[in-house]
Request: fold
Amino acid sequence: MNRGAATTAGTGVSEAADSLNPMTGEFSIMEPTALTGLPEGVPDRLSEEGITELYPPQAAAVDAGLLDGENVVAAVPTASGKTLIAELAMLSAVEQGGMALYIVPLRALASEKRDEFERWEEFGVDIGVTTGNYDSDGEWLASRDIIVATSEKVDSLIRNNAAWIDNLSCVVSDEVHLVDDPNRGPTLEVTLAKLRRVNPGLQTIALSATVGNANEVAGWLDAELVESDWRPIDLKMGVHYGSAVNFTDGDQREVPVDAGEKQTAALVGDALDTVEDGVGGSSLVFVNSRRNAETAANRLADITRSRLTDGERNDLRELAAEIREASDTQTSSDLADVVANGAAFHHAGLSSKSRSLVEDAFRDRLVKCISATPTLAAGVNTPARRVIVRDWRRYDGEFGGMKPLDTLEILQMCGRAGRPGLDPYGEAVLLANNADTMDELFERYLWADPEPVESKLAAEPALRTHTLATVASGFANSRGGLVEFLERTLYATQTPAPAELERVLDSVIDYLVVNDFLQRDGDELVATGIGHTVSRLYLDPMTAAEIIDGLETYTETSEDDPTPLGLYHLVCRTPDMYELYLKSGDRQAFTEMCYEREGEFLGVVPSEFEDVRFEDWLAALKTARLLEDWAEELDEDRITERYGVGPGDIRGKVDTTEWLLGAAEQLAAELDIDGAVAIRKARKRVADGIKEELLELAGVRGVGRVRARRLFEAGVETRADLRDADKDIILGALRGKKTAERILENAGRRDPSLDDVEADSGAAAAAAAATGGGDGKGDGQANLGDFEWGPSTGTLALPIWTRFSDDSPRSPRRQTQWCRRSTRVSLSRRATSPLRLITRPGRSSAAKTSLRTAASSGCCTQRVGDKSTVPFRWESTKAPLLSWSGSTDAGRTIPPVLNSTPKRPWLRWSRPKSRPATTIPPVFGSFSISPIRNDKQPRALSLISFLNALRCSMWTSESATLARWRSWVLPQNGQTR
Reply:
């Protein structure tokens, strides 16, 4: 049935001479040249690509009327040719003079599909892709024949009355089973209903993995169902237990696990060692968290490293360097380290560039193994010979613990196994550590049918958004009209009794009327002006209500413009922003910050006794502080370390904030609320990651946050300065004549040429000092750019965490807590003597990152005090990373280490052989500290993470009646005092 299943370019077509069509039960042969209704030359092109026959599911789709405008639901496994089914339908629509729309669930998939479809441009088919800018009507797309977009973007285009929507003759919904997703599902469901309402003759093609109720989905879309479990190559699924993989068909494969070895490592090594057609097999490992993905990749790099050729090592080194250039964060550095050894990790915390580089290298077989979170299974084209599902449980807050994944999600992961045309077979393996677990995995996943797809439209947050949009877009103008429209949805198909949906609908209508988004006159409903704006801006009405209330409350109670932090906090507490979680210790720290900066908030701070509301408020504050740090030009590395996020998370938060503040600006203007200028500045600052002084420079095309800072520090502060300043200064600040000439041209300089111009060394030095000597390639800013450093006074302003002891007579017991205080530390330049800092594994990454950052700052040769000093030095590093020291003050020492547990110290010190390794140097030279009382002083600092990780504390010379600062040391007995 599946002889010679070779494929080309992922098109999903087979060379089989005869294949049994599982839909008809008959053998059918359908050659591409027999297809009609396609642009001239397309069938021949398919044949040239090596496609001699269509796969059975593809042939069945054609028989079902795919090329005749009929609706089709194709529920077939991954790699069974779903994309070609879509291409045939869209090309047929274009040939008949229509337009086609391809809806994808993820932005990353939009770019991937555009690249795939671009091969049809030689036949006169224009391809367009659109994913962002939710307040645009996408007029430029009217000239395109095939448009690729996310469901959210299509929904926004309908809300903005994109005229070309009426010209659509074919719509393809990829991964249509995601209507079951609580977040994205309702938007996809409503969007398909609206498109079919706008154009009753619209051909609808829905693509899906095999689901439990594909017939219901087909019934909803009035479509012919093409359902099959046929695959171009065999997929074997099983469970590894003991020393073998037990497959569902009864076969076994011996994969022994050596003493001390992990099951995953043994399976990855076995796949690489199983050579088929001259190459070993790649592996895709699914785990349940980002941290586990990174940890697994580190371990698996040991497996892949030993199996690389010299050529692959060279190529991987180049790839690792490209990943490091993509982002200057520790996450990217860690990724580059494992990629250089042939492994990788993949999760949403990576930058889009890093994810793309990893995916491409894996498809090219350069990267041998990826450990990933389940998001990679959601449609991105990364097939492997062996898929290993290591974690089949995931933490669920609502569930209250580790919850088993759905069968459909596991089967989606398993479907990634097998590369048609590259691998002769695919294997999907789950892991069990005992016989009972093995039996459970077979019953729960491998022998089970996938769950049915169920609509999530009746949830109030989803219905709230789409009810307003339905009225504002003219699809309904009464309650009865809304009910009639909702009858077109999957929810109505699955729920014959509409009472529950109507109950939620009435509650939503009441909310929209109370907040002046809708006006009600009996049964009639009309969107207000602000309601139309909220719908057009693609906002959740609750988000808009929160923003409007916050802006109005602030302008009524304050004459000052809102601060960036206040605005960031306002949008961070809306439903459209995913807040950061509060981790252990965060509540106290952000509670203190909440009261310190209470006057900046746009809204009333909840009482601490309102536990849930107050915690949500603090979570929004934590997210807002990340955004404020970004707008204060902290580099990505410091932000990722401070907040425990990845580069992709930062970019996502920044993009969402820019969108929400843009919406806030329009709402303020429409409602005549003061603060539009402050909102615009805050939006521009967070979009570019710059302080206010760089706003004008960053407005020049080609000038990002790093280049703007370099120019500013060299004395070029405005666009006019770019037109008038000496060229040698501009060249010294920017580095690179081509870049500088392009920026001068964008700034409007009459003669942007820099021929025969030499860079000014003073400008170059000033720019380098401001940006840590960076080359401007990354998004990072000065590593120590937020220090308040005065070379003439030798003073450095920095914040530290310190342990505070309250010895007040009113306190029956001494209360100890961690507090944050800013201090000034005197620095001077003197020779140093070496001291190595060795941290315990698992605690060292934050400290190492901070010290590496400090090493690149130019402060690494500076030290504290006038006496002998002790520089930090890592065991494997010859150059000191930072020199500093402490001294006695009134007989009290300032040790650098504290709060260690007796048996597992966080770190230990070693000096030359003359001193025991556990000895703490009692005196470190001169170390002067004085409090900074102005809370506006810069707080962020590379060393803050180091000091935080070591939980250091220091003495202060300031006397206090009720309190004093205490220093904690680690004596030789391991006890703290």
